[in-house]
Design brief:
heterodimer, A: 501 residues, alpha/beta, Rossmann fold, 3 domains, 6-stranded mixed beta sheet, 17 helices, 34% helix, B: 338 residues, mainly alpha, ABC transporter involved in vitamin B12 uptake, BtuC, two-stranded antiparallel sheet, 6 strands, 5% strand, globular, disordered N terminus
Chain lengths: 501, 338
C-alpha cells in the first residue's frame, strides 16, 4: 500500500501556529503518503481545522516546513495550495445551489474563446469530471435538484479538477445516510487506488475503522501520535483523543459522596426526536449530579435540549416531581424550576450589547413578566451579590457583557440562572473555552449547588471532570444512550470503555 | 474604572445632542432672529417653535421606528400607513356624521391594523422585516387611493384641525401631543421590563427564547406600536393640509425616520433603543431643512447640504473615525508629555 522507499507525498515538520492567547498548533509533524486514507482525529479545539487551513493556505504557519515530494514548498494562499495539487472539500458544501452542475464545476476555470464562455466545451469538461467520480447525471441539471450526497460528490469532482494529488475531506459524511456513505467510501477507495492521498476528518469512529489506513490524533494543538488503523483498538483511540492513558487511570480522584435515595425531580421516559436523538430513559434525583459523557456529535447537547424543552421531543413523556407534565418550551421548563446554560455561549447565551446587569437579571425578570420590573436598587443588589459570590471580574456592572472574557461571561450566564433558584440546572459544556482559574471556580460552584440540594445535569467532553463530580454518568454514542454508570463504577476507564465499546 | 465607563457612555450619547446644539448656534449666526421667540395672542411663535411643529410627524414615526429597529426589524411601510390613515380621517369626516373622536379612533385603529399585518408577517411567518413591510409600503398607497377614490379629499373638522394646527398652553397642540406620547413610551419601556426584553430579543433572539421570553408576541406588539405612531402622524399631516393626498402624504418619510434612529446611535442590527436621542435626531433633520430654507440658500441646494451634514454626523459616529481620533489624541498627549 505505502512504499517506504518512496518519499511521502506531503510531509509537514514542526508546524507552529499561534492565535492571540491560544497555541493552535504546537510543533506538529505529519506525513501523508500517496494511495493512503489518513484519518485526522481530535476533539473540539484539537487543532484539526487549523491544520487543514494551514495546509490549504488559508492560514500562514508561524514556523515549520512543508515538503511536497521531498521538496520544500511555501503555501501562502489557496491558489498556491491548488497549484500544488492540494484540494479540499468542506463539510458545508461550497457550491452554488442555484447554478447548474456544469456551471458549478467550471466556475473557476471556464473555457473561453475571445472572452466568451464556450458552453459546449464547458459541458464536455464537466462530463469528464463527473465521470471521474462515477456520477452519471445531466451536467445541465440544477445543483439543488440533487441529493446532498450527490452534491458532495460534485464538490469532490470539482476539487479533484485535473491534477489533484492530496484530497482533504473535512467531515464529508455529517449529513449523509448510510447508503450515501457507502457510495462515498466506494469513491474514496477508487481514488486511493489511483494513487490519491486522502486526509479524512470525521467524528464517527466506525467510519474511521471502515475506510482509513492510518490514524493521526491531535489534542490541544499537539500531535499525540500516528497509528496504523489495524493496530489500534477503539478504546486506545478514544483514550488518545481524550488524553487519557488507560493504564494510569486505575486510581481516580473522586470526592463524591453518594446520594441517598432522594425523590426523582425529572424523569424522561423514551424521550427522543427523529434525526436528533434516539429515545432515552433518564431519572434525575434531587441533589444529584448526572454527567453526560460521549464524543463530539454523540448526542450530549441534543439530550440537554430535549430535557429542557428548547427543542420539542416528538416521542416519549416527561414527569416532573412524579407528575406527567408537558415541558416542551423554555417557558414551561422555567415555570417548573428548570434552567439551561447552552454550550454555544456566544450565539445562545450572552446578549453581547446588553450590560452585565441586564444579562444577569434577564431570566429572573422573564419569569416575573414584563409588567413587574425588578426595581433598579434590587437589581443592583442581586447583581453585586453574584458578582462577588462567583468572583466575576468586571470593572462595572453596566459594561456590555461582550467585553468580558469567556470565563466571566460564562459565570454571568450561570448567575443568570442561579438567581432564579432552579430545582434542576442543565449545564452543557460549562467549562468550554475558559481559563484555568474560571474553570476551577465553576467546578467548585457546581459542587456547592449540589450540596444545597439542586439537581444538575452536566454535559462535558472532559471525562476527568465528569468523574470528579458526577453521581451517575450517562454515556452517549451515535445519538443514543449506550449505558449508565453509577457510584463506585464511575472511572475514566469505565467511561472511555463505554464510549468505545 | 467606573468613571471611565460613564465617560464612554456619554461620548456616544452626547454626539447627537452636541450636533443639534451646534446646528442651532451655527444657523443663528447666519440667520438673524433665528432664536427669537415672540408671543402673539398668547401663542409662542418663532423659528424654533416652527421646527418643533414641522418635525412632529417625523419624530412620531421615528419613535415607532426606534423600537422596531431595536428588535432587529425595520418598518418601511410607515409612509404608506400615513396615507391610509389620512384617507380614513378625510373620508370618514366628509361622508359620515361620526363624532371626530371616533374618526380619530378609527384612523388610529387602521394604523394599528396595518402594524398587526406587518408584525404577523415578520413574527409568525418569519419573513424578513424589510421585505414584509415593503409589501405594505407598495400596497398601502393603493389602499389609500381606494379609500379616497383616487381624489384628494378635502375635509373640515374643528377637532382634527385643533390637533394639527391648534395650540395648547401656548405651544402647538401637536407638539404637546407628540411629547406626551414620547413620555409615555419612555415610561412604559423603562419603568417596566419591556425595554429590556425588546433589546434582548433584538440583541440575541435565541438567547432570549432560552430564558423564556415570547419574542413573537413582542415583535407583533412593536409593529402595532409603529403603526399607531404612523397613524397619529397621518392624522396630523392630513390636518395640516385639511385633506388627504393618497399619493404624496408622508412620501419618503420612512427614510427620514430611519435616519433619525441612526443619528441617535442605534445600529440597524438591533439590540439598543434610544428614544430620547431619536427625537433629537428627528429635530436635527428638521433644523437642517429650516436652516437651509431660511438662510437664503437657493432651494435646489437643500437636499445636497442636508445629505452632506448628515453624512458628517454619521462619519463622526463611525467606529473607524472614533478610533482614529482616539489614536490621534493619544499620540498628541504622548508628544506633549515628552
Amino acid at each position: 500500500m505505502t512504499d517506504v522507499n518512496q518519499p511521502p507525498l506531503l510531509s509537514i515538520e514542526h508546524i507552529n501556529k499561534r492565535f492571540p492567547g491560544v497555541r493552535a498548533l504546537n510543533d506538529v509533524s505529519l506525513t501523508f503518503h500517496a494511495g493512503e486514507v489518513h484519518a485526522l482525529l481530535g476533539e473540539n479545539g484539537a487543532g484539526k481545522s487549523t491544520l487543514i487551513k494551514v495546509l490549504t493556505g488559508i492560514y500562514t504557519k508561524d514556523s515549520g516546513d512543508m515538503m511536497l515530494d521531498g521538496r520544500n514548498v511555501h503555501i501562502r494562499n489557496s491558489l498556491d495550495a491548488q497549484s500544488n495539487g492540494i484540494r479540499t472539500v468542506y463539510q458545508e458544501i461550497n457550491l452554488i445551489p442555484t447554478m447548474t452542475v456544469a456551471e458549478n464545476l467550471t466556475l473557476l476555470d471556464q473555457p473561453r474563446r475571445f472572452g466568451m464562455i464556450r458552453w459546449r466545451s464547458a459541458q464536455s469538461r464537466a462530463k469528464e469530471m463527473l465521470a471521474r467520480v462515477g456520477l452519471d447525471i445531466d451536467p445541465n441539471s440544477l445543483l439543488v435538484s440533487h441529493s446532498i450526497a450527490v452534491q458532495q460528490m460534485v464538490a469532490i469532482a470539482r476539487a479533484l479538477g485535473s491534477k489533484a494529488r492530496l484530497l482533504i475531506l473535512d467531515e464529508p459524511t455529517a449529513s449523509l445516510d448510510s447508503d450515501e456513505i457507502a457510495r462515498l467510501f466506494g469513491l474514496m477507495r477508487q481514488l486511493k487506488e489511483q494513487g490519491m492521498a486522502i486526509i479524512f476528518v470525521t467524528h464517527f469512529l466506525d467510519q474511521v475503522y471502515a475506510i482509513s489506513d492510518t490514524i493521526s490524533v491531535l489534542r490541544n494543538g499537539s500531535h499525540v501520535g500516528t497509528f496504523k488503523t489495524s493496530n489500534l483498538s477503539q478504546t486506545e483511540l478514544v483514550g488518545h483523543m481524550l488524553g487519557k492513558d488507560l493504564d494510569m487511570l486505575q486510581h481516580d480522584q473522586r470526592d463524591v459522596t453518594e446520594a441517598e435515595e432522594k425523590p426523582v425531580v425529572l424523569s424522561l421516559s423514551q424521550v427522543g426526536k427523529t434525526g436528533m436523538l434516539k429515545p432515552v430513559d433518564l431519572n434525575l434525583k434531587q441533589g444529584e449530579i448526572v454527567g453526560l459523557a460521549g464524543l463530539l456529535g454523540s448526542g450530549r447537547t441534543e439530550l440537554c435540549e430535549l430535557a429542557y424543552g428548547s427543542v420539542r421531543p416528538d416521542q416519549g413523556n416527561k414527569a416532573w416531581l412524579g407528575k406527567l407534565l408537558p415541558i416542551n418550551t423554555p417557558k414551561q421548563a422555567i415555570e417548573q424550576g428548570m434552567a439551561y446554560c447552552p454550550e454555544d455561549r456566544k450565539h445562545r447565551g450572552i446578549i453581547a450589547e446588553l450590560s452585565v446587569r441586564e444579562n444577569l437579571i434577564l431570566a429572573l425578570q422573564s419569569s416575573r413578566g414584563w409588567w413587574s420590573r425588578i426595581p433598579m436598587a434590587e437589581q443592583q443588589a442581586i447583581v453585586s451579590e453574584f458578582i462577588e459570590r462567583l468572583s466575576i471580574k468586571t470593572s462595572d456592572m453596566e459594561k456590555p457583557i461582550g467585553e468580558l472574557s469567556g470565563g466571566n461571561q460564562q459565570k454571568v450566564i450561570l448567575a443568570r440562572w442561579l438567581v432564579t433558584n432552579p430545582t434542576l440546572l442543565i449545564l452543557d459544556e460549562p467549562t468550554r473555552g475558559i481559563d484555568v482559574g474560571a474553570h476551577h471556580d465553576i467546578l467548585t460552584i457546581i459542587r456547592e449547588l449540589c450540596e444545597e440540594g439542586m439537581s444538575l445535569l452536566v454535559a462535558s467532553s472532559e471525562v476527568e471532570e465528569i468523574v470528579a463530580f458526577a453521581h451517575r454518568v450517562v454515556v452517549l454514542r451515535d445519538r443514543g444512550k449506550v449505558s449508565e454508570i453509577a457510584g463506585n463504577q464511575i472511572s475514566q476507564k469505565s467511561i472511555i470503555q463505554a464510549i468505545a465499546q | 474604572m467606573r468613571f471611565k465607563s460613564i465617560m464612554r457612555l456619554e461620548a456616544r450619547t452626547l454626539a447627537p445632542i452636541v450636533s443639534l446644539f451646534l446646528l442651532i448656534v451655527g444657523t443663528a449666526l447666519v440667520v438673524p432672529g433665528f432664536l427669537k421667540l415672540s408671543i402673539v395672542d398668547g401663542h409662542i411663535y418663532g423659528s424654533l417653535i416652527d421646527i418643533l411643529h414641522r418635525s412632529t410627524p417625523t419624530a412620531l414615526i421615528a419613535l415607532g421606528m426606534a423600537v422596531v429597529i431595536g428588535t432587529k426589524g425595520i418598518d418601511l411601510s410607515v409612509g404608506a400607513i400615513i396615507a391610509i390613515c389620512g384617507a380614513v380621517t378625510a373620508v370618514l369626516t366628509t361622508s359620515t356624521e361620526l363624532h371626530p373622536l371616533i374618526v380619530l379612533g378609527c384612523a388610529l385603529l387602521a394604523g394599528m391594523a396595518c402594524g398587526l399585518w406587518n408584525g404577523t408577517l415578520v413574527a409568525v411567518f418569519g419573513i424578513q422585516p424589510i421585505v414584509a413591510t415593503l409589501i405594505l409600503m407598495v400596497a398601502g398607497r393603493g389602499i389609500a387611493q381606494m379609500i379616497t377614490g383616487g381624489q384628494i379629499v378635502t375635509f373640515h373638522s374643528d377637532f382634527i384641525d385643533a390637533i394639527g394646527n391648534g395650540f395648547f398652553m401656548g405651544l402647538p397642540a401637536r407638539v404637546v401631543l407628540a411629547a406626551v406620547i414620547v413620555a409615555i413610551t419612555i415610561l412604559v419601556l423603562r419603568k417596566t421590563a419591556l425595554g429590556m426584553f425588546l433589546e434582548a430579543v433584538g440583541g440575541n433572539s435565541e438567547a432570549s427564547r432560552l430564558v423564556g421570553i415570547d419574542s413573537k408576541l413582542l415583535i407583533i406588539m412593536v409593529y402595532v406600536f409603529s403603526g399607531f405612531c404612523a397613524a397619529l402622524a397621518g392624522v396630523i399631516i392630513a390636518a395640516d393640509i385639511r385633506g388627504a393626498d393618497a399619493n404624496n402624504a408622508g412620501l419618503w418619510l420612512e427614510l427620514d425616520a430611519i435616519l433619525a434612529v441612526v443619528i441617535a446611535g442605534a445600529s440597524l442590527s438591533g439590540g439598543r433603543i434610544y428614544l430620547g436621542l431619536t427625537i433629537v435626531g428627528a429635530l436635527i433633520i428638521q433644523t437642517l431643512t429650516t436652516a437651509i430654507l431660511t438662510s437664503g440658500l437657493p432651494a435646489q441646494y437643500n437636499l445636497i447640504v442636508k445629505a452632506s451634514i448628515i453624512l458628517l454626523v454619521l462619519l463622526l459616529q463611525s467606529k473607524v473615525t472614533q478610533n482614529f481620533i482616539k489614536a490621534r489624541v493619544q499620540s498628541f498627549r504622548r508628544a506633549s508629555d515628552a
